[in-house]
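pinning this so it doesn't scroll away 📌
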Amino acid sequence: MSRIPRLLWILLIAGAVLRAGVIELRPKAALESAPEESENLDIARSLDLHQGFSLNGQPTADRSLLFPALAAAVMLPFHGSPKPVLYVQLLLSCASAWLLYRTGLKRFGSSAALLLCAAWLFYPGAILATALFQTTTLFVFLWIVALALYDRLEDNGFRLRDAVLLGLCAGLTILTRSIGLVLLLSLVLYVSGLRFGAFREVHWRSGLVILFTALVLIVPWMLRNSRAVGHFALTTNSGISLLAGEMTHESAFPSHEARDSIAARRPSLEENTPAPRPQLAAGEVWVRKLMRLWATDIGLWLNYFAQPNDPGLSRSVLWHILPVAVASIPGMLAVGLGAAGFLLVQTFRSRRLYLLQLLLGVAALFLTYGLPRDHFMFLPALLIGAAALWRPAVWVEAPWIRRAAVICTLGAFGGLWLLEGLSVAAM
């Protein structure tokens, strides 16, 4: 037993060293040049100067509350320097790996738990996000804490104080990114009536406590936004649109909509009469959204190397098929192995909760226009699903219908990724 903790500490130290190296090697002025990061930094400095949650001197709700507020508190003793925030993120990222290890240990044993821990510690996007002044690391940490708190709630017989703690954590996750609503909804639905075992009053009471506690945290922020910017919402930088494939601002590479618009105008440039922007069918837009599930990792690299007066959109010509494929492989593996784990192994603890989070996340992907380029919401459940595969004869012992489902699912994702790769290569 002594050997396993020693290996765990080796993994944690190696992951911390990698993250520190990425922090220290990031090009100078990249943080101030990257669009989202520079806004988070400006808001944090505004909070430090007691000017409120403001951007360019004006109240804003374009960014979620928690990360700039935490960053401001960390920066205060360091005269506004953002680097200590990145080292706090290093600690949070390693703590996420530790919690994943504990989660895997309860479900799959020590070997699978170590692999689960290592998967997060050495996932390139998780390493890179530590060096970015963004919400990703804090968001995933709080999500994984919520999963651990759910285990605590169930282990302790659905005690009131455990439900309150879980609701508080879910509320903080939402205040970090509004898509954390998927976490809250999945917990409430699962605890109230979708969990395994007999349904009892204590279950739906715990679900209501979780929901009410989270609302106590998030509603005051929404009221502030209503007074400050005229929107009773978590942020004004999100939205609901069934027919919007993605946000059109700069990202890993030009959006499909932007490329289609350029292509439509090109034949009429000589006549100075722009052609109308092509209209996309709902089905085509949704296919494009699914194709973008892996694009976050590419966008992280563009943020990391951001240069003054060189936005990500203009740098996107550097991303041809080979670097796109390399940057996307870890996300593809997480999706493929996670889906295979849930399809082949149907007996591990809280499986239905993780599946519910994935299904609600996909539903949110179809409804929103910003989420299609952000797969980090899915990673905790996907990594746990992949860890479920670490058992003997899992493929051989699975019924043929499940194996066929795995092949069809991986084929569908492979087709989507191939289409996206060819689209980017021919940009």
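📌 and the second one:
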Amino acid sequence: MISQPLRVLHVVSGIEDRGGVMAFVSRLAEEDQAGVENLVWKHRDFKPRGTAHYVCQGIVRLTDLNLRSDIFGAFREAVPLIRWVRGQERLLLHAHSRLGIFASFFASLLTRTPLMMHFHALASRPWFYRILWQLCRAQPVFNSSKTCRHFGEDPARSLVIMPPLAWPNQAQATRVERTRFIACGAFVRGKHFDLLLRAFQQLWQEQKAAELHIYGVSTKPADAVCQREIVAFAQNNPAVHLHEWDPHWSEYLDATDIFVHLGLPESFGMVILEAFARGCKLVVLRDTFLEDLAQPLDSTGIYAADTLSPAAVALRMKEASCYKPAVASLWELRRAASPLFSPEESRTTLAGAYARLKD
């Protein structure tokens, strides 16, 4: 007799199909682990892509707007979620978005379904979430050591699952005569693209052959005012090229590219990992997941700005442009880190945690 697999419902909610949380969940759920069947909870109008299996019965279209909106939205989202949960056997909830955490909290309490709360961001009120996971005896899981410490937990004793990534098989090298800087992310204030543009402007005065490419333009921007400002600023420099956000953006990276990311506050930075895996040089801020890697992975080809200022960032961008490693050398070096971000390893670790929580 074959036992029924444990069904894990990854509660994200909303209609959005991009962003770090969706990238994590879709990669995690695109394959089932032995004894575990993965499902993803989204809005009823969500259009699934990829191979993950979705339960599209949610009623709240937008998530993670602000704390108050997500709490009130969770009351509404909990109604169809509870209705669906009650019809299942051997189920565990794995909540990811803020609204998903709140809705799953209500569903877990009312149905006594085991719950895992996954924290992908640095919440402004970590004490509040600690109360939630203690009340319903949920298992907290964190996307980095930094996030874990932010919630007052010890990474050595906690469940830390860094985002999984299918590591590229080789270093891409097809061009280049000129220096090319790349950035990617939603056009919102916390990504500091305005500061990046000013830093590039300073550098461009010395290196006229340099280019800056930013992936992030959206027909439905998270912050329309911010996007308009960035577009207007970029038009003043012919070396700046803005591109629509593309889930496959990292596939266009060349190993000679310099990736710049200035997100703050940033719990992880999935785009940093994608560029890291491609063998690109990186210009980042201090206190990223890169600092948790063993030497020399934490420093070779990585340029951390001391302050969030155009001058400090421009200096690191200039230093990165002067470093000329062999095309595939950084990619070869960084393959040693690939097991830390293996999708298979993430699924195996979580499968064990699911089993312990269910028991």
